[in-house]
From TrEMBL, chain A:
<dbReference type="GO" id="GO:0005886">
    <property type="term" value="C:plasma membrane"/>
</dbReference>
<feature type="transmembrane region" description="Helical">
    <location>
        <begin position="97"/>
        <end position="118"/>
    </location>
</feature>
<keyword id="KW-0067">ATP-binding</keyword>
<dbReference type="InterPro" id="IPR029016">
    <property type="entry name" value="GAF-like_dom_sf"/>
</dbReference>
<dbReference type="InterPro" id="IPR003018">
    <property type="entry name" value="GAF"/>
</dbReference>
<dbReference type="Pfam" id="PF13492">
    <property type="entry name" value="GAF_3"/>
</dbReference>
<dbReference type="InterPro" id="IPR003594">
    <property type="entry name" value="HATPase_dom"/>
</dbReference>
<dbReference type="InterPro" id="IPR025201">
    <property type="entry name" value="KdpD_TM"/>
</dbReference>
<dbReference type="Pfam" id="PF00512">
    <property type="entry name" value="HisKA"/>
</dbReference>
UniProtKB/TrEMBL annotation, chain B:
<feature type="domain" description="Response regulatory">
    <location>
        <begin position="10"/>
        <end position="123"/>
    </location>
</feature>
<dbReference type="Pfam" id="PF00072">
    <property type="entry name" value="Response_reg"/>
</dbReference>
<keyword id="KW-0805">Transcription regulation</keyword>
<feature type="domain" description="OmpR/PhoB-type">
    <location>
        <begin position="132"/>
        <end position="232"/>
    </location>
</feature>
<keyword id="KW-0902">Two-component regulatory system</keyword>
<protein>
    <recommendedName>
        <fullName>Transcriptional regulatory protein KdpE</fullName>
    </recommendedName>
</protein>
<dbReference type="GO" id="GO:0000987">
    <property type="term" value="F:cis-regulatory region sequence-specific DNA binding"/>
</dbReference>
<dbReference type="InterPro" id="IPR001789">
    <property type="entry name" value="Sig_transdc_resp-reg_receiver"/>
</dbReference>
<dbReference type="InterPro" id="IPR001867">
    <property type="entry name" value="OmpR/PhoB-type_DNA-bd"/>
</dbReference>
Length: 561, 234
């Protein structure tokens, strides 16, 4: 017995507590022997042998094959010594008992092996389940994350938690982390790698992964697409394991794992290496997905800007060439054919030149306005606006081309003040009113109505005309850049004016919408016949209290003279 | 209006754009002005001291120095009227120029009639700097001696502030007055930039009392983002 114990201890000297199962089993066998002896089952040997199988099975299930073989051995010895005649001797009277011992040992060995294998399989199954669970967690997290940096730090954390590794870092080719999509590096080998994510908490001494040799290994792995480092086939003298992040067609980066001191053998097992490979593949797929998403977005943007560029070119070339043609034509005509024109003709040609130039001026103003809006250079100069004052400026600006259209203004009984950039808002009103004039017949009526909506704290300005109107379903589209209503194709224009209006109004936190005129508004006179368009601008009043206070204060002051 | 000549008044044009200079030279000479030219700020300042112009047309965008600098340097020793030419959508530049002593501005592209009107107003204000006690604009009469305002023969009741405001605007008739200049001249030194809302409210009151239709003002015109201009009555 002592010899067997000693041997057991010797075999697993490295592992602490390895002798514990042997001691326990010895104690159990001793107790069983004492019990059987005391109860006096001494003559029912078959049952005794069967009872002696229990400790064997027990130790096989709980401690594995070594302890169970040991148990079988000491059980046989105890059985022989105490229960086989001659008692208290290892010698055997009946040689058939030797056969019994042999059968017993065989049965014990078989059951022990089976039980131990079952246990091992259970352990593997549990481990696999844990690995699968962590892979699943990771993959689920990955599909939800579209930001590369978050994704990588998540991978680092997950790997670190699963493997109980001290530090996990990910290297990516330089320039690919910011989504520029330049990471076209499989096989070129010249690409610089950089640390993209790490699991370690900041403040660690000497962060793993930033050193020269670590970078060299990472580059090697990136270039060759093979695992390297401790526990792998190559560069095994270095600490840390380096796993390529690869999909079928490309290598996206390198995942490096560093263990806490000493337990590399326990961490870099075959099973864990497979797991790391799976992590690598998953991460690579996720990176590829994020990259593809970015590329798709870029492609969409490019297509959109391509479309806009085409529209801009079409629109601008037409809108610039037409007035240029009239200017150049009229001017050259005047210069070359001086004597043949009557003074009335000359005046007409000169007016054509002026109108063409004014039209170009409007176009340039709109284009610049659009550029300003789009580039974010638009800065609001907020001040205290008086709608009445603004309308005065706007009416003065359209006076020259309203011809015989009547512009009627409906103001609320008390002055409407609100906070806004008066110059830009006047530009909005001029654009809207110019449209109303442009798309309505001469002699028709345009109504500008101002209301204060106390519930929503907004000033609402509507401009209603009796002109072409807006086709149903295009009420929103007419505010898009370069979009012209289908009914307006015979009227020249760029499709910029309302887009600028929308930009300016929205910069004020307001809304601008197009509406169909109310059916009942057809008042019979003019060419209205129930048509026309209504543009509705709603602007937030702003600091209502301050404005009320100022207004009240001023009214009081002006009374007391 | 177009027939009124410049009577030989001397105008210095400081602009680096040959096309604009040519346009101004031809037009102004046709209106009997004597035109001198300078293609950059340095020459402009030098010319201003040599030629003694009656008026300067100054482009704010010059190659060698900013138009603002030319303006300030000339203002150090001369009260000559200066009209600045600016690009559109540069309200800050316009205000800065006007507050630094420019008399008026014209936005490029401009109509010739507009520029000529500004030039005439500026020249007239130099000529008639003597305080006339009564200002008459169409149906509107201001008796500065008695602080009386009459519209079409009927007395208009104004509060002291409204009266002061009208007085400043009317005595600079035809010229643009910035919000800051108005605040300074009406409310005195103790005003703040954000007080421009007072101005707006008082202008509103004035228009209610003077204008037939305040949305189509005949007397007080708003220069968006800059200030106000009292319109000369034709």
């Amino acid at each position: 017995m002592d010899a067997a114990r000693g041997k057991g201890r010797g075999a697993h000297a490295a592992l602490p507590w390895a002798w514990l199962p042997y001691v326990s089993v010895t104690v159990v066998v001793v107790l069983l022997t004492v019990l059987l002896h005391a109860v006096g089952l001494g003559y029912d040997r078959v049952n005794i042998v069967l009872l002696y199988l229990f400790p064997v099975l027990f130790s096989a299930v709980y401690w594995g094959i070594g302890p169970s073989f040991y148990t079988a051995a000491i059980s046989v010895l105890a059985f022989d010594f105490f229960f086989v005649p001659p008692f208290f001797s290892f010698s055997v009277d009946d040689l058939r008992y030797l056969f019994s011992f042999f059968v017993y040992l065989a049965v014990a060995a078989l059951t022990a092996t089976l039980a131990a294998r079952l246990k091992l399989q259970l352990r593997y199954a549990r481990q696999r389940e844990a690995h699968t669970a962590s892979l699943y967690t990771l993959s689920r997290q990955m599909t939800a994350i579209s930001d590369l940096q978050t994704l990588l730090s998540n991978v680092c954390r997950q790997v670190s938690a699963t493997l109980d590794a001290a530090q996990v870092v990910i290297y990516l080719p330089r320039g690919s982390g910011n989504g520029s999509g330049s990471g076209d590096g499989s096989g070129t080998g010249e690409q610089e790698l950089q640390l993209a994510a790490t699991s370690s908490v900041s403040g660690d001494e000497a962060v793993f992964g930033s050193g020269e040799s670590e970078m060299v290994i990472a580059k090697w792995v990136f270039r060759h697409g093979e695992m390297a480092g401790r526990g792998s086939g190559t560069l095994r003298e270095y600490s840390g394991l380096y796993v390529p992040l690869r999909t079928e067609e490309r290598i996206y980066g390198v995942l490096a794992v560093q263990t806490a001191n000493g337990n590399e053998a326990a961490v870099f097992t075959q099973e864990n290496k497979r797991l790391l490979e799976a992590f690598g593949g998953l991460t690579a797929t996720a990176i590829a997905r994020v990259k593809l998403g970015e590329e798709a977005k870029l492609a969409h943007l490019t297509a959109e800007s391509e479309r806009l560029r085409t529209a801009l070119l079409d629109s601008v070339s037409h809108e610039l060439r037409t007035p240029l043609a009239t200017i150049i034509g009229s001017a050259t005509g005047l210069i070359e054919g001086e004597p043949i024109f009557s003074s009335a003709d000359r005046l007409e040609l000169l007016a054509t030149i002026r109108d063409g130039a004014l039209r170009m001026n409007r176009l340039v103003t709109n284009l610049l306005g659009m550029v300003k809006l789009e580039s974010g250079m638009l800065r609001l100069r907020m001040s205290f606006c008086d709608v009445e004052d603004m309308l005065g400026v706007v009416l003065a600006q359209v006076k020259n081309y309203q011809q015989h259209r009547r512009i009627r203004i409906q103001l609320p009984s008390h002055p409407s003040y609100f906070a806004g950039d008066e110059v830009l808002l006047e530009q909005v009103l001029v654009n809207v009113l110019s449209n109303a004039i442009k798309y309505s017949p001469d002699g028709s009526e345009i109504v500008i109505a101002v209301q204060e909506d106390t519930a929503s704290q907004q000033v609402i300005i509507t401009v209603a005309d009796e002109g072409l109107g807006i086709p149903k379903g295009e009420e929103e589209r007419i505010f898009e850049k370069f979009y012209r209503a289908s009914s307006a194709s015979h009227v020249t224009g760029t499709g910029l004016g309302l887009a600028i209006c929308k930009g300016i109004v929205e910069a004020h936190g307001g809304t601008i919408t197009a509406e169909q005129p109310a059916a009942a508004s057809g008042n019979g006179n003019g060419n209205g016949n129930g048509k026309g368009a209504v543009i509705r601008i709603a602007l937030p009043i702003g600091n209502r209290e301050a404005i009320d206070r100022m207004t009240a204060e001023e009214e009081r002051r002006s009374e007391d003279v | 209006m177009t027939a009124t000549g410049g009577n030989g008044a001397r105008i210095l044009v400081i602009d680096d754009e040959p096309q604009i200079v040519k346009l101004l030279r031809v037009t102004l000479q046709a209106h009997h002005f004597e035109v001198h030219e300078a293609a950059n700020g340095g020459t402009g300042i030098y010319q201003a001291s040599i030629v003694h112009p009656d008026l300067i047309v100054l482009d704010l965008g010059l190659p060698d120095m900013s138009g603002m600098e030319v303006l300030q340097r000339v203002r150090e020793w001369s009260r000559v009227p200066i009209i600045v030419l600016t690009a559109k959508e540069r309200e800050d530049d316009k205000i800065a120029a006007l507050d630094s002593g420019a008399d008026d501005y014209v936005t490029k592209p401009f109509g010739m009639g507009e520029l000529l009107a500004r030039i005439r107003v500026a020249l007239r204000h130099v000529a008639s700097s003597t305080n006339e006690p009564i200002l008459q604009f169409g149906g509107l009469k201001l008796d500065l001696a008695q602080r009386l305002v009459e519209l079409d023969g009927n007395r208009v009741k104004l509060t002291p502030t409204e009266y002061d405001l009208l007085k400043v605007l009317a005595s600079n008739a035809g010229k643009v007055i910035t919000q800051r200049q108005l605040l300074q001249q009406v409310w005195g030194g103790h005003h703040h930039e954000s007080d421009s809302h007072y101005l707006r409210i008082y202008i509103g009151h004035l228009r209610k009392k003077l204008e037939e239709d305040p949305t189509r003002p005949k007397f007080i015109e708003t220069e968006p983002g800059i200030g106000y201009r009292f319109l000369l009555q034709d």
